[in-house]
Amino acid sequence: MLGGSCLAGWPALGFMLGAVAEDPIGWHSNRQVVRLCSRLTWVMLLPGAIGVLLQGPVWLMGDHGVIGTDTAVWLIFALRTVLGWVLRIGSWALMIWLLARNATPLEPAAEAEPGPA
């Protein structure tokens, strides 16, 4: 779902931004904001995707009898607990870095024109 929203050009994080800015789709008119929201959405997707890639084979091995069911449950528990937190904290740090690296698209505030004296 998240990856599909990026591929469609309407990243999910953009809608969150729009909800905060009280303009649900206004963010989409700025290409820099769309690109930033797309990057942030992909980073938000990474921990879940990596978790599936690592836990899926363990589950399949336990389901097909390659390893014991109890062993599979404990391995998945360990992966979800330890690696899950590490990946999520890492993705949050990467998201903060993307926002703080001085490339966040902000439009300059309109300066007030001095009136006639």
Mean pLDDT: 87
Shape: elongated
Q: In DSSP terms, counting alpha (H) and pi (I) runs of 4 or more, how many helices?
A: 4
C-alpha termini separation: 58 Å
The gyration radius over C-alpha positions equals: 21 Å
In total, how many beta strands?
A: 0
Beta strand %? under 5%
Spans of at least 5 consecutive residues with low confidence: none
Query: Could you give the order of the helices and strands?
Result: HHHH
Helix percentage: 55-70%
Q: Helix- and strand-based class?
A: mainly alpha
Question: In words, what does this structure look like?
Answer:
The structure is a single chain. The protein has 117 residues and is mostly helical. The protein is built from four helices and no strands. The protein has helices at 2-7, 12-20, 31-63, 69-100. Helix 2 (12-20) packs across helix 3 and helix 3 (31-63) packs antiparallel against helix 4. The model has no long low-confidence stretch (mean pLDDT 87).
